[in-house]
Write a structure and sequence with these properties.
The chain is α+β, with helices and mostly antiparallel strands. The chain is built from two helices and three strands. It has a three-stranded mixed beta sheet with strand order 1-2-3, covered by helices on one side. A hairpin with a 2-residue loop joins strand 2 (43-58) and strand 3. The longest helix has 14 residues, at 3-16. The chain is elongated, with a radius of gyration of 16 Å. The two termini are 25 Å apart. The mean pLDDT is 81.
């Protein structure tokens, strides 16, 4: 498994441990303008591991820094009609949790 994939899977696991998070995936421009459909979730996060800069190698170990972009989508409508839309305070709480 590549380091990029390991980083993505670790981030995905952590994000999915947040109860409000409905959908976590690789950023493949799923929600770009012009796309026909959105996922049936009120909260989604798309993750992209942009780059990894390797700093040092010692004792067959590599150390480095990774640049990761996580785009959070909060949809105003929810598939369950009994759940109210996402307001600004809920969004702020979710961002703080992440």
């Amino acid at each position: 498994m590549t380091p990029r994939k390991e980083i993505y899977l670790a981030i995905k696991e952590e994000l999915l441990s947040i109860p409000e998070m409905g959908y976590v995936d690789l950023q493949r421009n799923q929600f770009a303008p012009g796309k026909a459909s959105y996922p049936p979730y009120a909260v989604a996060c798309l993750v992209k591991v942009v780059s990894i800069q390797w700093d040092a190698m010692s004792e067959q170990m590599q150390e480095g820094s990774a640049l990761v972009e996580a785009t959070l989508y909060l949809f105003e409508t929810h598939p369950d009609p009994e759940v109210e839309g996402v307001d600004a305070l809920v969004a702020m709480d979710l961002i703080d949790t992440i």
